[in-house]
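re: ur question from yesterday

yeah so i grabbed the chain u mentioned. its 316 aa long if i counted rite. heres the sequnce exactly as i have it in my notes:
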Amino acid sequence: MNQGIVIKSTGSWYTVKLEDGTIASCRIVGRFRLDGHKLTNPVAVGDFVKVLLEADGITGSIVEILERTNYVVRQSPRKKHDLHLLASNIDQAMLIMTITQPKLKQGFIDRFLLMTEPYNIPAIIVFNKADVYNEDDLYVFEVLKAIYEDIGYQVHLVSALKEEGLENLRKVLKDKTTLISGQSGVGKSTLVNGLDPKFKLKTQELSDYTGKGQHTTTFAEMFDLDFGGAIIDTPGIKTLSFNNLEPIDVAHNFREFFELSEACKFGGNCLHRDEPKCAVKEAIEKGGISELRYFNYLTLLEEIEEQNYWERNKKM
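ran it thru and got these structure tokens back, copy pasting raw so excuse formatting
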């Protein structure tokens, strides 16, 4: 039996780097679930696995997934009742955004953080394409930077095209395994290519007609960094939904809300909406909590309640 790490997932085949450096193409044997949920991809890039090799030494079967230290999971975009594993055993996650080209969807930031926060995975927010920002765009960046740095997240402004700000990112990435994600068109592949000269990931211009990004990364894949560490590059994400969460999970994973919840009348059970003597709502009125974050929070609560209602009540 051989042991290795999954470095690429194509859905039906998994590329595994074995302890001796051999690269093997593997399928999975048996069924794997995650906390009772069905998975569209039961094995994730970053998983440590046990492999039974064929006689050729380069193909085999994954027979066991070793215990994960953490993982990043989302609702499957194709099968709404299933979950999709993005990566596992990571040290941090980096979200690539832009203020323009394509236009900022600020709510996506809070959705992304709702993937990483439950597992205490540090998240870094990177705004790319600084070279095309006008004065208004830079003002929006400064507002968002203040909001997220105030609650403990790192925020960076870079231009992958002009290679500005990349040295700071290299310092953040050095000697760590980092999931890199973002919406289509934000320049993620260009950014990754700029971080390490050996990378030649595909890049593609924004659609002239729609102004939206086209997917250039098809499958999740891990790459070693010449300056130390590794990145897990993932396909561009259009939307993020959460069939694995309850409303209270959302409340507990907006970190500044959770810190204040001890002072709420209903403590950790408060959803910070209509409850009396809610410390979070009081903080919003006094300007201590971002109204923007709170608006996104309410949207997520409503969406999860509506989407998961029948699942929660199917035994009635």
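noticed a couple things. DSSP finds nine helices and 13 strands in the chain. also Residues 291-307 form the longest helix (17 residues).
anyway ttyl
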